[in-house]
Amino acid sequence: MSELRIGVSGWKYRKWRGDFYPSGLRQADELGYLAQRMNSAEINGSFYSLRKPEHYAAWRDATPADFRFAVKGGRFITHMKKLNEPEVGLANFFASGPLALGGKLGPFLWQLPEVLHFDPTRLRAFLELLPRTTEAVSELAQRCDRDIVAEPFTESPPMRVRHAIEVRHESYHDSEFAHMLREHGVALVLADTAGRFPRFDDVTADFIYVRLHGPHRLYFGSYRPDLIGVWAQRVRQWLDAALDVFVYFDNDADGAAPFDAIALADAVQA
Fold this sequence. Notes:
The protein is of the alpha/beta class. The protein is about 35% helix and about 15% strand.
């Protein structure tokens, strides 16, 4: 059976309180509330700064056994270093604790900045460093900068590790890029960005990773029932093709994302 995960990009949003989250719900209980209504979420805080093992462990413990987290890779690697000399940055990121998610660890998401052009040499070096198993994550984490991560977290059950990459520049419409991703089993994110960024539909791995950033304006607006129906049909087609599917709604600015995630999950099952 193919795996289907539908969720949201992050869960700590003030505008969701008193709307998706009931009035009076403790902020500490928001993730648990969300996890009773969908089966996955992206961790976005890891993009902005290194988290700690106790953060990942708390998120793990707040969710049911069948919940999965996608983990967004650090912007230090993607946006500041722009994938240049990525080894230490990757080691620090993996040492910081994502393995504490245990069996709830889903794909890692690497979002590249819109100014970053396709550079085959740079990208290949990055892809070759990405660990494909939790054992490889642990090995890479041991090479971290101990001034930044004093005690790397390396405990995990043996598991496969998946990666997805989201690009935002036209130069990635290049057959060499798609071929490179297929070589490494890395999924190319299908991102709906209300026309702001180029769209990429290539299937480059045995799973699909979709990010829905907004139907008509980036991060805003709800996907109407007809649009939900279109995406539900695509999800069913991917599942029928024996692909695992991960879909995350990022139209969170005005609170539509969690409602749309629930609506899509219902539509796929209809």
